[in-house]
Amino acid sequence: MSDVSLTVNGRRVSGTVEDRTLLVHFLRENLGLTGTHVGCDTSQCGACVIHVDGKAVKSCTMLAVQASGSEILTIEGLANGGDLHPVQAAFKEHHGLQCGFCTPGMIMTATDMIARHPEGLDEATVRTELEGNICRCTGYHNIVKAILAASKTMAKGSKTRTKRAA
Amino acid sequence: MGVEGIGARVARKEDKRFITGGGRYVDDMVVPGMKHAVFVRSPYAHAQIRKIDVKAAQAMPGVIGVLTGKELKADGIGNLICGWMIHSRDGTPMKMGAWSALAVDKVRYVGDAVVVVVADTKGQARDAAEAVEITYKELKSVTDASKAMDKGAPQIHPEAENNLIFDWDIGNADETEAAFKKAAHVVEMDIINNRLVPNAMEPRAALGHYDKAEDHYTCWTTSQNPHVARLVMSAFYNVAPENKLRVIAPDVGGGFGSKIYIYPEEIVCLWASKKTGVPVKWVADRTESFLCDAHGRDHHSHCAMAFDEDHKILGFKVETKANLGAYMSLFSSATPTYLYATLLSGQYDIPAIHANVKAIYTNTAPVDAYRGAGRPEAAFNVERMMEVAARQFGMSPAELRRKNFITAFPHQTPVIMNYDAGDFATSLDAAMKEADYAGFEKRRAKAKKAGKLRGIGFSCYIEACGIAPSAAVGSLGAGVGLWESAEVRVNAVGTIEVLTGSHSHGQGHETTFSQLVAQRLSVPLDSISIVHGDTDKVQMGMGTYGSRSGAVGMSAIVKALDKVEAKARKIAAHLLEADESDIVIENGELKVAGTDKSVPWFQMALAAYTAHNLPAGMEPGLKETAFYDPANFTFPAGCYICEVEIDPETGHTDIVQFVAADDFGNIINPMIVEGQVHGGVAQGVGQALLEGANYDETGQLLTASYMDYTMPRAGDLPSFKVSTSSTPSPSNPLGLKGCGEAGAIGSPPAVINAITDAIGTENITMPATPQKVWAAIRTVKH
């Protein structure tokens, strides 16, 4: 057994886990954060994507103990109180989800993707970058649309903020 | 109604919980004292069980119980059944072998459940499962249906000689033979419809909880039809009487057919909960899903189509071998018969059709309905034949189809179905225009200059949805009726709850069903809640599959709304001292037409519950129930055009455009309908290009993970061009046809017709992988 201590969605948490416990299971079972899902055994489907120290990570590829000391962001911590994150809002507006199971991973991947492409995104880039996330419901059409729209909204938002700062 | 009613592009009400991590799936459920189950499964495709030794496993840390099939049988748990009786052409009933939820003396496919281990944690259960010792005697196995009836093939069930479950006919053999005798042209082909794994993203799961004090069971399960699960587990599996069994299907992460059936695991979790005294949860690994979820398709067919000199179809003959796997799943017999061969007329006026289907046991996972269920297999056969025939005749594939379209309705086909509405030419024209078919040859020439092979393919599919008239399916062997129920409850403050037997696992019923109510009762969407998926809340229902939630489920809501509206009018007329026939419902009020007299909706509702001033003799309250049994199937149809570009050096196929022009009748929410088409087309493209479940010669599933089974990813697909036209269904009050499966039915032939057009040979099977395409190109001179 090992002790882990980390920050999840801005809150300090700790626990004692079996050494073999995956980060995703620690989040779901110890912390009750069931928004992060498990869809496969082989780190292929991306339903478990979260952010670890600001980067998108498949939480089934990491042991909980490896994440000790990290800052974690999960789908539950993405919205700002009652205000949806622009990616969440775009998924709703553009019908980027159906059954909702892959959705948390898709949204966490998309926020990371948009952050890594401050120059903006095009359809081909979005499709290539979604390689690690599988959706069986939407055919990706509206997911791609939602990510492109969110990327535009967030670019506008950051320009407004830059102007204000100036 | 405009912004929120029928036809409005309303964003989904259910989205908020899914985009914020608040969805509640079975694996998210926690019950005090809950423990975890892991199944020990057969590593052999076919073997006798000689000995099961559980002693070492029982002694492992955290283990609460290690249970076997013998104990299950001793407790009277019944065998799994197939609920649709098919008779062979000689009149004998189908030959169903026994399927025990835990195998007792023999295993019949890799993944067959043998032992269940219950332990404090899933890890401990897994460790203990490793310690269960089972001695097998391996037997010869067969996985290919086309070989399972050969002399010397292993006998899988004693009940089914030569592994033949049934040998079934539809249509008229003599008339079809006569049609072929007078034919000017005959087109013939062998067609394989590849085996697929449904792969809903949420793996199947079950949580069984036996409450000793109440002698009552609760089962949370990943089900498309919790009421059918309760019915079957009570009536056939002897788990518990219906009044002692509550089945809850909460948020369910996709189904595509695979979550219709009642599988061994939920039965075992309920039984094991009583046996061990603890709530028992099981969640499938993805590999377990690959091994044990019901697979789809797996047909081998020989097709022949007869034409006259003018290229009008005279007759169609089909012989199909359908692989049903090792056991007959719940509706497995209906899929290759009444859901398949009844659609072999396609969109065409075919005077004579005859089909023979042999359903065959093999040592593979059970096969049952997967998105489209039989109809994709029918559409693939018909639409490949039409394209190949057009090429043989040197005709435009569009013109051959147009020449043979059914244009007058109702139309009785030779294979049971009576098409009640449609306009096939409109869809064909719309698709050709959107695809710029006229400009294709220029695009082909340009691609050729760049060293690429470009091709275009059509598919004019038709399918049958809105299943189904209960008396009709009863006469064809169904063990259940296929009506739907609804209850509309108007609360005292005027808010509304709709209880439905349909189940949403991605379809967005909370939104579309609310749109219907908002339209009818002129109340805001936010004041309407849709309740589904719990047998303690909704009395009875048949669930969601076969694109039936709109045509059947919403029709039941319409019937209940009719009753609610009638009573609301009576109350309003009484309060306003007006005639009932003068009451109109609009803008949240019940008004007397042509006056300024009105009562707000919520006040009328309050009046129904205070009952201080109701019409004489009226019962208090405002709540109505209805059951709706459809009058006919509905017939969604459309035209899909796929354009591909192939790199002859690598065999890679790029879908450069995909056009879908569908006729779904009336539409409640176009945004949701388009989403259904996108998803269906992606699954169809997956079948055509990427997906295939492959067993090796010893019965091991080679494609049992996402590393081996190619799921369509974003980079494999284009954005789709979708549009709709409408000939409303005359068979239900809303004129709906259904849209859930069309994409998966219509797209595979369009993709393969495009590829074969590009490479110049018909000789390719699905999935048309780069390797197969590359090899096929090398058989043709370019």
From TrEMBL, chain A:
Record's keyword terms, sorted: 2Fe-2S, Iron, Iron-sulfur, Metal-binding, Oxidoreductase
InterPro entries tied to this protein: 2Fe-2S-bd, 2Fe-2S-bd_dom_sf, 2Fe-2S_ferredoxin-like_sf, 2Fe-2S_ferredoxin-type, Beta-grasp_dom_sf, Diverse_Oxidoreductases
Domain called 2Fe-2S ferredoxin-type: residue spans: 2-78
Recorded GO MF terms: 2 iron, 2 sulfur cluster binding; metal ion binding; oxidoreductase activity
SUPFAM superfamilies: 2Fe-2S ferredoxin-like (SSF54292), CO dehydrogenase ISP C-domain like (SSF47741)
Protein's name according to its UniProt entry: Carbon monoxide dehydrogenase
Taxonomy of the source species: Bacteria, Pseudomonadati, Pseudomonadota, Alphaproteobacteria, Hyphomicrobiales
From TrEMBL, chain B:
Domain spans labelled Aldehyde oxidase/xanthine dehydrogenase a/b hammerhead: 20-140
Assigned keywords, A-Z: Molybdenum, Oxidoreductase
InterPro entries in UniProt: Ald_Oxase/Xan_DH_a/b (IPR000674), Ald_Oxase/Xan_DH_a/b_sf (IPR036856), Ald_Oxase/xanthine_DH-like (IPR016208), AldOxase/xan_DH_MoCoBD1 (IPR008274), AldOxase/xan_DH_MoCoBD2 (IPR046867), AldOxase/xan_DH_Mopterin-bd_sf (IPR037165)
GO MF entries: iron ion binding; oxidoreductase activity
SMART domains (UniProt xref): Ald_Xan_dh_C
PANTHER family associated with the record: ALDEHYDE OXIDASE 1-RELATED, XANTHINE DEHYDROGENASE
Protein name: Carbon monoxide dehydrogenase
Source organism of this protein record: Manganibacter manganicus
